[in-house]
Request: fold
Amino acid sequence: MTPQHPARAVISRSALINNAQRVAARVAPARLAIVVKDDAYAHGLRPVVSTLSDAGFAHFGALDLETALTVRDIAADAFIFTWVFGETDDIEAALAARLDLGVSYPQILERVAAAAARLGTTARVHLKIDTGLHRAGVIADAWPTFVNRAATLQRDGSIEVVGVWTHIAEASDDADTAAIQRFERAIEQVRSAGLCPQWRHLAASAASFERTDARFDLVRVGAFVYGIAPGDGIGPEQLGLTPALTLSTTVSDVTTRARSVIARIPLGQVHGLYSDAEHHVDVAIRGQRHPVIAVGRTATDIDVGQANVTVGDDVYLFGNGAHGEASLQVWADAMDSIGEEIVIRLARPAEHIYVD
Ligand SMILES: *Cc1c(COP(=O)(O)O)cnc(C)c1O
Reply:
């Protein structure tokens, strides 16, 4: 840990590879696209992609264009799916990088087709239907018109519809079942328009792991590749997954207060640790768990009771448990959140260290 970093994130390459292999085997013959948005869930985009690409994984999901172009820089031949475009995004750069473009609105379809026509190339397009999440995608009423327009553009040669996709909540089985049915109807309409997309995809971590009927041709998985649990009492170990990231810091000060020893760590609200951690989470020092009692702006106090703790001791927040620390899921539950959010918040300012 260097002075500018409040914490250290140690990332296990073998955990990432093993998790990805486990998910890939589980979803086969569907293909696994590894989602690397948010700096690979704060695990570090470049090291994560090169580790997994070197291990033979060749499908990635990148959310925004900048991330997708970085992935292309590392993985020259990979399938890279990207699906959020801003007004100022350079679609021609996306086409030049041979990205697979998730298209959620008619205006984007037109922008992509126009850019492809200018470049004299054919854009690889995945059409998005909104199957109930109401976040993005074309609603069912507008779908036939959208699909017909795409079929026309495909005949003109500016686009090729290589995929149809949607996103589901994965919060309840019934809602997911309804979304899968809507997705199947949308695919029928695409086929009726004379298109035959190779990639149908809808599931993220939870549904792809649990439901054969959610896998189609491709699944987009982030959380499980990093060993982040789905919650609801299910830990990553139960799925055969290992948390890839262990977050630790160092005791910066030790004081005695009312016969208790208080250890201070240089991590606080400005680093994403909020007061809802107080009395709800424990950290591990010398293999023993001790409660977080007060979260300040830039430092946090731990009540270590009568334990022998000194400045410079390692303090483990969450990880794979090797040093006695709690799991990320315990932190997420205590802070009324989900694992992804906590790790993205707390690991971002940390120094990243990669181990085999
Ligand atoms: C983040 C995201 C995923 C991956 O979700 P996980 O639950 O982390 O597996 C898949 N698809 C889309 C559209 C996403 O935004």
Residues 245-337 form a domain with the Lyase, Ornithine Decarboxylase; Chain A, domain 1 fold (CATH 2.40.37.10). The CA atoms of residues 33 and 289 lie 37 Å apart.
